[in-house]
């Protein structure tokens, strides 16, 4: 019984990794993602600091909505 549950867990983890990988491939094709107003870039000689605050708030809202729809009981 323990081996069967371990197998299912590995399959679920694999599916989740495939979905995350697909998400990153699609996001890479969206030209405005990561360049929204509120995403701060500080550039100086030999130093670049990127703070994607607005992008992370948007990602958080979308994931919150999706997870609430999926896991609603």
TrEMBL record:
InterPro entries: DUF2905 (IPR021320)
Keywords: Membrane, Transmembrane, Transmembrane helix
Pfam family, one: DUF2905
Transmembrane intervals: 9-27, 47-71
Domain of life: Bacteria
Protein's UniProt name: DUF2905 domain-containing protein
């Amino acid at each position: 019984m323990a081996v069967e549950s371990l197998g299912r867990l590995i399959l679920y983890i694999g599916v989740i990794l495939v979905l995350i990988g697909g998400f990153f491939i699609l996001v890479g094709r969206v030209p405005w993602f990561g360049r929204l107003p509120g995403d701060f870039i500080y550039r100086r000689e030999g130093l670049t600091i990127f703070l994607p605050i607005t992008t992370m708030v948007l990602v958080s809202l979308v994931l919150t909505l999706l997870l609430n729809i999926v896991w609603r009981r």
